[in-house]
Amino acid sequence: MTQILNGRGVSTTFDSDGVHLTRSRQRIDIPPPAIQEVRTADARTVEFLLTDGTIQRAEAATGSPPAASPRP
Questions:
Q1: Pairing relation of β-strands 35-42 and 18-23?
Q2: Domains of the chain with CATH codes
Q3: Global confidence as pTM
C-alpha cells in the first residue's frame, strides 16, 4: 500500500521501497535502511532524519497539519 503526504511545495509517497519526495520536479528516493527517524518538527512539518545526518522535510500549507491518506 502506498500513502501520500501532500504539503507546501512537496509531495511525499511512502511504500515498501521507501520514501519518495518530489520537490520542484526533483524526486528524492530514500530507501528504508537510510531512514534513522521520522518525526514532527511542528504542527505542520514532518522530518525524515537519515543515517548520514541529512534531514528531509515535508511541510503542509499554512494553517493545515500534514495529512496522510492511503492509496490503493
A1: unpaired
A2: 2-62 (2.40.10)
A3: 0.73
